[in-house]
Amino acid sequence: MATEVLRPVHPARLTAALDRPLSRWLWLVKWLLALPHYVVLVFLWLAFVGVSVVAFFAVLINGRYPRALFDFNVGVLRWSWRVAYYAYGALGTDRYPPFTLADVPDYPTHWDVAYPDQLSRGLVLVKWWLLAIPHYLVLAFFMGGARVVWFSGGLIGLLTLFAGIALAATAHYPRGIFDLVLGLNRWALRVAAYAALLTDVYPPFRLDQGGGEPESLP
Fold this sequence. Notes:
With about 220 residues, the chain is mostly helical.
């Protein structure tokens, strides 16, 4: 009898539920409504870069990512994703994103990374630039010119635009587009976690679509 090989659960996990109903027209002004978040995120990402430099040397010296720094950087990615989910990274909810780094249990999307007890001191030198290059090329197609909050451009921006047009015309978000958009963003966030030194698990070249994370599947 053949041995069944299980797909490992990735330590960076993204889940989301599509809100219903969604406003037909609110998506047209979400760029304006989200401006306070964009301003805050500029400063958070400046801090993210500084924290990542400190974490780089911490991992290089003792193979551990300081827990407080880890939680902060995961929180910045979480905050950025919630804003993207509300705005033009997904348009998956009309609930305004909370101003917090922490997870909000009743918000329709969640992002987290399992804290690693130990990280490779050798990989920290190459994974964020050399090893991640193939993924950066893929993400250039997915996200175009988008940076901090997946604002526009690329395949994600195009699909989100189609979703907005569908909402305006039918008040319905096509489920197929939602599943694909979530899969693309999940790929991007896994790469972000790897490049930010939050995990040593290399991002799979796999499009896991839908709002739920795939568990240990064949």
